[in-house]
Amino acid sequence: MAAMDALFLRFAEIVGANNVLIEPADIAPHLAEPRDLFHGRAAMVLRPGSTEEVSRILKLASETGTPIVPQGGNTGLVGGQIPDMSGRAVVVAMGRMNRIREIDPASATVTAEAGVVLQTLREAADAAGMLFPLSLGAQGSCQIGGNLSSNAGGTGALVHGSARDLCLGIEVVLPTGEVLEDLRKLKKDNTGYDLKNLFIGAEGTLGIVTAAVLKLVAKPKGRETAWIGLNSPQAALALFRRAQERAGSALTAFELIGERALDFVLRHRDGAVDPLSARYPWYVLAEISSGRSAEDARTLMEEILGDGLEAGLTEDAALAQSLAQQGAFWHLREEMSWAQKPEGASIKHDISVPVAAIPDFIEQAAAAVARVAAGARVVCFGHMGDGNLHYNVSQPVGAAREDFLALYRQMNDAVHAVVAAFGGSFSAEHGIGSMKRDELARTAPPVALELMRRVKTAFDPAGIMNPGKVI
To answer: I need a surface site. Which of 30, 33, 247, 425 has the fewest CB within 10 A?
Structure first.
């Protein structure tokens, strides 16, 4: 106890007593994640306010063998930001490092600290006449450091890519306390290894991201959003191909949504309204963003909808008539994760397969789910344009929550076997964390695993960074 008290004082000296949390009620929000699947304990929570403070924290942690768990907005869904149950770990919460250091419209970049909330960054870019295209359901609370550490995807990835594709430069503190300051704005740079990409997607296992240079894009001059009813994923795929041929990069979103996902939102979210007068087995939420004009965006969307109806691919469609209605359409999509909670236990799958394989995957995965749990309810929705589906399975009506969750591993194995058969990934955008670490160890090529271990050892010789996560 005396040793821990002495260590506490040394950490407190770095960040100041007001920025150390030790009381159980103060620490509690940092010890559980949104799905309430992972829980942990921590010796303390530190809230650094500068890169220099993060450096001193990690240097001391390496010297004393203190486990460190970096944490952003605590919105991760695989347990990557939650400490283990040992009670030894120190959580480093990055929320105080929330300064936007620079917006440079001429270079189309923004330099932001790790604790900047994604929505805040998007609003700042908008005020500067630009767009930061990363868009997530959790953007009101997730932070830039966490977005990079998990290589977040979201609805804008169809055209603009994931967080990795939007990052030009990075500032990161290594476990030794050394600082890699590489906040360059260069879009082309072939001077050696691209070190920043080792930290993006590493989930805090190699160091702590403290700032980044991120790409901005021009704000569209016109945006049109449509909610489309269809009878099958095959029809949705054919519509996607036609839409891409006609609109190219102006097609900025193409979300596939199963009827049950919409049902849950309409049932459990106040104010949710079905955009169409009849129900359909499948829906698409499509968006056109034109750099030319509002008229161009409207024309493109109307042509896509007309093509779909003429080809017999779509059954009905609603074209948003106002910004408020656009927001209402997107709100339905963004609420689909949370609307599953009142329906009981849910077994989640964040998968990707080649876009062309999506209809066959959906058919074969449904059969696999039925073999594991008769009556289980598939809730499928996601980013069809980039092959990423959130293939979730809710418990059968009337089933016991505990009995259903006992099938978690069996259900994951069954669905992921279908994913593997199509050459897909069992972690498309949520990361590995604690949830999928063992599966990564079972399924990754041995050489790849060994290379990951070598990288981990080289960067974190004391083994203090987010132990038990990823690898």
So the answer is: 425
